[in-house]
C-alpha cells in the first residue's frame, strides 16, 4: 500500500512514489503522539501472533520456533521497505500449505534430509520467494497478483483449507497418520479408530468449541490467545505430557545468528520452481489482504511497492531461520482495531516475540499439540468463503465452475500440484473468455444522439443500408474464426439491402496477422456483394498493423473514420452503389 507522508490529514494517505531503497518509509513524518498507540498495537499483535507462530509450522512439518523466527524477521523486513503503514506480515495458512507441498516434493527426491536440513530448505525457499519479489518489482510485474482470479483463489483456498484440516487428524487424535492426500488419512483414521487417544481428542474438541464460541460472541480477547493460555495452564496443572498428550517440547531460548541458509545438494530447479509456486499464492493472497484493508484506511495499494516490502520480509525471515510469509489478515485486523499508526507497531511485536523466546520458552514448551491442532482447524475454516462462492454462483456459473476446478485440484493432487491446476485453470478461463468476444449490432434511438446496441432495447432501430458492428474484444488467432462467423451471420441476416458494413473497433486493442487475413477475406466477399467495409475509432497500434499489412489501402482510407458519427455522415452522403470514390463530407 503506497502512501504520502501525512500533511493536514494524517488519516488519509495518498500514493507515494518511493525510490527503490527508501528505508523505513512508513515512519516518515512520525509523530510522538502515535507512540502509545503503536506500542499498544504491537503488544496486541504479539499476543495474537504467538499462537499462529507456534501452530502454523506444523502444517509443513517444521519445528515451532521457526514460526516465531518468521514472525520476527518478516515484520522487520517489511518495516524496512514495505510501503504500508498498517499492514502486518507473518505466517499464513495458505502459504504454509504450499510450502508443505514443496517440502514434501523435496523429501521425495532427497529422503535422507534431517529435520535441520528441512528447516534449511524452508529458509532457502523463503529467500527464493524474496528474490523473486524483488525481480518482479524491478520489472514492474505487480499485476502478476492477478494471475489467479478471485473465483479461482476462492476455490483453491477451500481446497487448501480442507487439506489443512485433514492434516490435523493425527495431532488431535494422537494417532500416527502416515497416509497422504485426502482419502488416505481418513481411511487410516477409520482403520485405527480403536487406538484414538481420547484425552487428546476431547481436549482438541474443547479448544475448538472455545474458538468458535469466541468467534460468535467476542469477549475482547482473541480466541487463539485464550486457547494458548488455557492450554498451557491445564498442561501445567494436570501434567499432560505424563498423561500421553503430546506437547510442543523444548524451544530454543534465543534467536539464531543471522546468516544465509545452507543445505547441501538441494536441486536448484526444485528450489526455483518451489519458490515460484509459493510466490504466486502468497503474493496473490497477500495483495488481496492489502487491498481489503486499504479500503478501510484510505491508503492506495501499489503492487510493485508491495513486492519490495514482501521481498524484504521473506529475505529477513530467511536470514533468521524462518520460512515464507505474506500479509496476515488477523494481525492486520488487530493492528487496526487497537489503533496502530505505523510499522513501529510491527517492530514492537517483533521485540515482544523475541523476549517471549528468551524468557518464556519453558512455558511455551508445555503447550498441548491438540490445542494447536484446534487452532489450525479453526484457521482453515476461516479461509473457506462460502458466501463468496454463493456470490460467484449468482454472478457467473462459468466462474463458479473454475472455482470448483481449483478446489478439486488442491484436494485431489495436493496443494503444490493444486497451484499448477489453479494457474492452468486461470489461463483456460482467460482463453475461454477471449475466444468468444461478442459482436453487437448498433443502431439509433429516434430523437436521441449516439449509437446503442440493438439487443438492449426495442426502441433502438438499425440504420437502413448501414450495418455497424461493435466487436467487444481483441481480434487474435484464437478468436478470428469466431468473430468472422458472427460478422457473416449479421450480414446474412440483413442482406441484400446492406450497402456498408462499418466495424466499431474502439474495444479492439490488439490484432494479429491471422485476424487481418480474416478481415481481408471478408472484405473481398463483401465487395462481391456490393458492400463496402469500413472501420471506426481504430486504436493507434491496431491502425499501424493494418497499415503495414496493406488492409487500410485495400478498404480505402476514406473508409477509416474517427468515430461513428463521421461514418454515418459519410454513408448518408454516399450515392447508392458507389464503391470507390471518396464520399466523406467536408469538415470545413
UniProtKB/TrEMBL annotation:
Which InterPro entries does the UniProt entry name for this protein?
SLC26A/SulP_dom, SLC26A/SulP_fam, STAS_dom, STAS_dom_sf
In the UniProt record, does the keyword Membrane occur? yes
| Main location per the UniProt record | membrane
Q: Which UniProt keywords apply?
A: Membrane, Transmembrane, Transmembrane helix
Protein's cellular compartments: Membrane
Q: Which domain of life is it from?
A: Bacteria
Q: Per the record's keyword annotation, is Transmembrane helix included, yes or no? A: yes
What topology does the record note for this protein and the membrane? Multi-pass membrane protein
> What name has this protein been given in UniProt?
SulP family inorganic anion transporter
User: What organism does the record attribute this protein to?
Assistant: Paracoccus aurantius
Q: Give the taxonomic lineage as stored in the record.
A: Bacteria, Pseudomonadati, Pseudomonadota, Alphaproteobacteria, Rhodobacterales
